[in-house]
Amino acid sequence: MNRRIFLGLSLLAAGTVAFGQPGSKTGQDVVLQLTVRGPIDPPTSEYVREGIAAAEAGRCSAVLIELDTPGGLLDATREIVSAMLNSSLPVIVYVAPSGARATSAGVFITMGADAAAMAPGTHIGAAHPVALGGGFEIPSKAGPSVMGEKAASDAAAYLRALAGEKGRNTEWAEQAVRRSISLTADEALRAHVVDMVVADRGQLFKNLAGRPVAQKNSKFPESLAATAVQDYPMSSLRRFLHTIANPNLAYFFLIFGIYAVIYEIASPSAGLGVVAGIVSLAVAGYALSILPVSYTGLLLLGLGIVLLALELKIASHGILTASGVTLLVLGSLFLFNTAEPYFRVAKGLIAGTAAGSAAFFVLAIAKVLEARRRPPVLGLEALIGQVGEVRQELNPRGMVFVSGELWSAEASEKLPQGTRVQVLGIDGNVLKVKKIEK
Fold first, then answer.
1. Where are the domains of the chain?
2. What is the CATH number of domain 380-435?
């Protein structure tokens, strides 16, 4: 079945757009709204592309994307913009509500819209790309690298092309990438970066009614102001994947998974540790696969964990623990290859993980050293000091029952059956015992 038809039928079945029901509006009387909150990642890209396809299948009058994002991944952003540009329907991007932002990746999505609007109290800008890892970042004071300059040039050309095609300010588009310039909603309107600043959707649709969409040889319906808005929510699974694509959650699942596996290996049990560890590592693996990970940071993190684990096997008197915690902190700080605050692990979480790891391994070291100082608990020597019972008279030899087994034993005096004895030593396979005085 054609993918668009399938999406349209799914949309109908879910009741997202009530086409054809008694008393409902037709597809042309409906604007389908997609709500994008948080970073731009693969789940978000799939959601937007699916929503645009569903609106086309349902023959809606337009697609409205309500946007509030700190940035995101370049590949996912390009996929969203491509779907917007190739849509047969007009696509509106509305940066809202008040306090929202369209920074980094959000600038590209806003520039790719057929109509771009912002709510009062919002801002847009800072679109400098990171050279590696696929994300966006504010450029460092040290200056761009060669790869960073290439990425910036590519992003600047892309944003200029979008701005030029939609008739917006190409000069500002260049500076948004090169210098990470940001604008308030009113400043963006004056600079011709967006088309309007409106307080709500009603005013937005009123201003757009009858407006031409040149690139698509169409125009917004004259009746747009009276058009119903139907939400197209993100699915539960996609929302979950979007939620875990968070640096702090990815880091938590990674550390928890590693320690759960280490615990299971060090203290085999019913397997719950390894199951929890594998599930956590799988979740962390997915999140890390779509985040701008630094392989250097990942390597430092891994080496830190290895050194901490080795402390349980090698008595270094804390040297391995100190080195492991140091590498763990450095790896955590450098885990993500971007300067955007959102794509950084919270310092409080790193500090808590380092402190917890240090405390755990210090206690573990103490237990290991204590166990090494204890007398052997395996083999015949483990019987020394154990208490047993004479089962066959000792005269001077006989049989005693110790630790669940019968042993040949010898005493310095005659001891009748039933006498309580304690093991003093071992001579070959014969236990040396003495009577326990009552």
1. 3-240, 246-373, 380-435
2. 2.40.50.140
